[in-house]
């Protein structure tokens, strides 16, 4: 019996649930974001997940769980999740529609935040974290591009993204986060709690006040090392805020204040209610006026049909809806999500090569599967990445692995997996102690350059004629044929 192909989320449907799409705002690894209207005619952001994700039982389970948790987050300095559902093979999520530039864009264009706006930003982000934590959610990827500066104050977005990105990536154990705003426990692969968001709050406030992240920039390995071992660089930070930021940036998560304690210290009162804190923010807030037209945050990705997109500054920083949503999935640095096969050269007679165009860390890349070859008892995968952008890109953390069953391989392609389509079983590259039968990811990929990678797998059944190739940050290439 012939099956109808799943609906394409890139084509605006006449209606999803009770929502009517108006136009596409942007897209990312997990789906398409539409500006839509609810039955009352109000504008909302409608995120339609890709059918490949909705077809996965584990993703559907995590999607419902994380969406339900996100719906419990109070609307204090956040973009509210309004609805969630499944229809005709589509999983969708509806969030509040918010206009405004993200914090990173404003600072890049206008410099550090000062005066009452800096105070309001610190209080507003802390208030959002308090609401998020009270709902039992940990953001895990708080950063300037996940903070929208709306006309009434900052709005935190993207909470819940890490859990969904993990479900989408097949639970490969990849660390989710953005190096300059990750906590030491995230860097070290330890248990992540709400205290990690407090550390990120300290990084965000320091960045907003000085125009630079407190642990510097540069290559991800260097930044992660400084996060874990160095003291933050806080020169130029407002002296009124510095002691509280220093406490938030304590390497020991047990010594950091809670979000509520941040609010109380900032406002000089005890147990300040979220309503009162939100009002204090809006009363003292002066809306940002970016030099470029205000962009609508929609979950990142490239502009569609000439419509500028903000919130993730050109990428889906993973990692359910960004900017216009409280759960935008963004492909942040180290945010790992699935993408459908798209772009690339025409395949050869055996179905290869097959390629995909995407963005990682905001850099446009072309990933191509060259061959999947059986040699003796093993299977060897050959693939490549081309930098299609105008800036250098460092792939050091993009394709590695960190899990309970695999060693800590950041600077390698150890996170690449083969997936048996019949059983769903996954095979990682062969390892021997601290050695992985896979490529290192050293060096910087300059614009126009191509880097080739390989991985060797053992234990793959000889009866297998094709396998899925799952690459962190890139996603799943389904039904890749195995040649002899």
UniProtKB/TrEMBL annotation:
InterPro entries membership = Kinase-like_dom_sf, Prot_kinase_dom, Protein_kinase_ATP_BS, Ser/Thr_kinase_AS
Which residues of the sequence carry a binding annotation for ATP? Answer: 47
- Which parts of the chain span the membrane according to its record? 316-338
This protein's record includes keyword Kinase: yes
Q: Which Pfam families does the record match to this protein?
A: Pkinase (PF00069)
Q: Does the keyword Transmembrane helix apply?
A: yes
The protein's matches in Gene3D superfamilies, at most eight in alphabetical order, are given as: Phosphorylase Kinase, domain 1, Transferase(Phosphotransferase) domain 1
Annotated region (Disordered), positions in chain: 278-310
Extract the GO molecular function terms from the UniProt entry.
Answer: ATP binding; protein serine/threonine kinase activity
Keywords, ordered alphabetically: ATP-binding, Kinase, Membrane, Nucleotide-binding, Serine/threonine-protein kinase, Transferase, Transmembrane, Transmembrane helix
Report the protein name in the record: Serine/threonine protein kinase
* Organism (species): Planomonospora sphaerica
Q: What is the lineage of its organism?
A: Bacteria, Bacillati, Actinomycetota, Actinomycetes, Streptosporangiales
